[in-house]
């Protein structure tokens, strides 16, 4: 695997030659880079391109190192911390012979798992998060729909690998269940964002003006999601 030194750090990178015209760089870890390049691109040319992006690479990799050091959402084990509605809660796991249950208290998410084994805890937590999202998001969508004068055709809450939400040409709105880990203000930003697509189906200046008309501080809310998105996306 090729390696390059940037700001005193050795960074390894993979190369995927594709039928494309430009070189694309993607950060995939604290010290690793993925490169997509046109066929026959030389290592010398790749080295040159990577060095022109040294500042961006250094900034992004610092973010991933800081993320790796953040214990929140890093584990589902007893005593770990998971986010819910923007607040970290301590996980408390109790083994029982019967009756699996997830309960929320002031500072704790208590998981009682049947069968005297902790193996079911990730699935129980995921199901609980999805249920919480299903309980909250339709109501928030209905409230903001009334303010915007729009009506989505259908609301779906599901796992999405690269998106927090989407709005189809049929008026269906999809939400990533993990957004329930974000603060209420950020959840509302996502709801307004997707509903605005029912009026402006793109990300033009008109779209952002519409979002700003209802959420003047939308940039702050959007930035929170950008800065913490990887934290929310950690696998259970």
UniProtKB/TrEMBL annotation:
Provenance organism: Dendrosporobacter quercicolus
Protein name: YgjP-like metallopeptidase domain-containing protein
Record InterPro entries: UTP_pyrophosphatase-like, YgjP-like_metallopeptidase
Source species, domain of life: Bacteria
Domain YgjP-like metallopeptidase, first and last residues per copy: 21-228
Gene3D superfamilies membership: Metalloproteases ('zincins'), catalytic domain
One Pfam assignment: YgjP-like
